[in-house]
Amino acid sequence: MLPFQTPSDSADITLHFCSRNFWSNVISFLSKYFGKRKSIKLLTKKKLKLLENLIHAKVSNPQIFVEAFTHRSAIDHDKFKESNERLEFLGDALLGFIIGEALFTAFPEEDEGFLTKIRSNFVNKSALYDCARRINLLQFIFVGAELNTGIPNGFKTILADGVEALLGAIYIDCGMEKTKQFIRQFIIEPNLKLGMHLIDANFKSQVLEYTQAARIESPKYIVAGESGPEHDREFTVQLKIGGKIWGEGKGKSKKSAEQEAAKHALQAIPEENQKYLHKLDLN
Hints:
Elements: H1 7-18, H2 20-39, H3 45-55, H4 62-68, H5 85-106, H6 112-123, H7 125-134, H8 145-148, H9 155-174, H10 176-193, H11 203-214, E1 220-227, E2 234-241, E3 244-251, H12 254-267
Antiparallel strand pairs: 1-2, 2-3
Helix pairs in contact: 4-9, 5-6, 5-9, 5-10, 7-9, 9-10, 11-12
């Protein structure tokens, strides 16, 4: 019995401390606290160094990156307590804002519809998955045992979402400038080189519009070759304007090969004729 307590008080305290809810809460708290403390170690020194080199910054809070790399399938496995879904939400908002700001600055004369079309090419799942491959995000991702046995069809989505979560973690731990730097290096600049800043994915239509605006001969698409077995053919198509090859593309169908050839042609348009195309310049 504690000082200044009556027997009834002592009994009440004993009942309280022995209650199932009390000990359940204690165990839950300790498990959550020590689980989080141990999860920091899951980001090894080697991985931490790789991460810091990747984001060009010193990591102050490793735990936020562990959370960013944790897919919900890993929850309740090996001390993982928080998934990356909240950070994914934050990263998605940051990505949209930073890309939107860059486009707003680069195209002062264009309307909202134009800017929205271009932004979608930089923030869609395909672009984010390409970014994940570019930075080898797979080496950092924590997934449940059921996903570790192989790469399921949905793994592209897991990696794309992981990029957004990583952006959220960079922002929280390193700030806005480092977040912008990462997006510029691994999303904006690579996609510019791939021509993703072009208005839409109908590259053939854009080539035709270009030739009309530049008052030159209309494009012609010629099948230059076919290869592979009947069930898995690959076509090579050349785009010619005025008898000169402007671009060449490969694809599983003639149409996809033509689109690829048109895309390459747009990227190869002479600098003096760039005025006929919308161009994103973020320098």
